[in-house]
Amino acid sequence: MPLPMHLVKVALGHPLCVELKNGEVYNGHLKQCDDWMNLHLVGVVCTASDGERFWKMEECFVRGNTIKCLRVPPVLLPAAEEAAEKAKQAARKPNRKRPAGDDEGGEKRAKGGKGGKGAKGGKGKGGKGAR
Questions:
Q1: Which helix (H) or strand (E) holds 18?
Q2: Cα 100 from Cα 113, distance rounded (Å)
Q3: What is the pTM of this model?
Q4: Taking CA 43 as the corner, what is the angle to CA 41 and CA 49, rounded to the nearest 5 degrees?
Q5: Rounded CA gap, 8 and 38, in Å?
Q6: CA distances from 86 to 3, 34, 45, 83, 129 (A)
Q7: How many Å apart are CA 130 and CA 121, to the nearest integer?
Q8: From CA 29, how far away is CA 15, in angstroms rounded?
Q9: CB distance 45 to 60 below 8 Å
Q10: Where are the beta strands (DSSP E) in 34-118?
Q11: What is the four-CA torsion angle of 3, 56, 23, 11, rounded to 10 degrees?
Q12: In 18-119, where does DSSP find H-type helix?
């Protein structure tokens, strides 16, 4: 089952029906979305919460935390499931850890160098106290 964000990202450029918590319904084409599910719709028809008033807008912005429900065309569901599976596989890949000698100065630390203890160091650390 795809997550809502996968559905929204797959629905870019497609018709979308958005129902808000206050009961208003916005039908339009999704132009843009972000990670907080804020939506930019174009060619919008808005229906009032009582269902008796309608008005048309060229475009509107819907804040993500006001969304109650989204309806997307059924043809987008396979693409959303595929996107969810890709995201799941990407999350499963382990991070490759580099050996100590790969990063800059790592070889020094691995062989017992200063090890990043500051400019002066301490007694026995190669700083002024070691003289």
A1: strand 15-20
A2: 12
A3: 0.64
A4: 75
A5: 10
A6: 12, 19, 34, 5, 56
A7: 9
A8: 4
A9: no
A10: 39-47, 54-62, 67-71
A11: -10
A12: 77-92, 106-110
Q: Check: CB of residue 17 under 8 Å from CB of residue 8.
A: no
The share of the chain scoring above pLDDT 90, in percent, equals 44
Which structure tokens are listed for 103?
């990063």
The pLDDT tens digits of the residues spanning 4-18 come to: 787 888 889 999 999
Among 33-37, 52-56, 86-90, which stretch is predicted with the lowest mean pLDDT? 86-90
The one-letter code for the residue type at 72 is: V
Those residues whose C-beta lies under 8 Å from the C-beta of residue 65, and which sit 6 or more positions away, are 36
Q: How far apart are CA 35 and CA 21, in angstroms?
A: 19
The length of the chain is 131
Tally Cβ neighbours within 10 Å of residue 42.
14
DSSP 3-state assignment of 101?
coil
Q: Show the tokens assigned to 4.
A: 């809502």
Residue in this structure with the two tokens 């029906």, named with its chain if needed: 17
pLDDT tier, 111 (very low <50, low <70, confident <90, very high otherwise): low
Q: Which residue is listed with tokens 């999350």?
A: 91
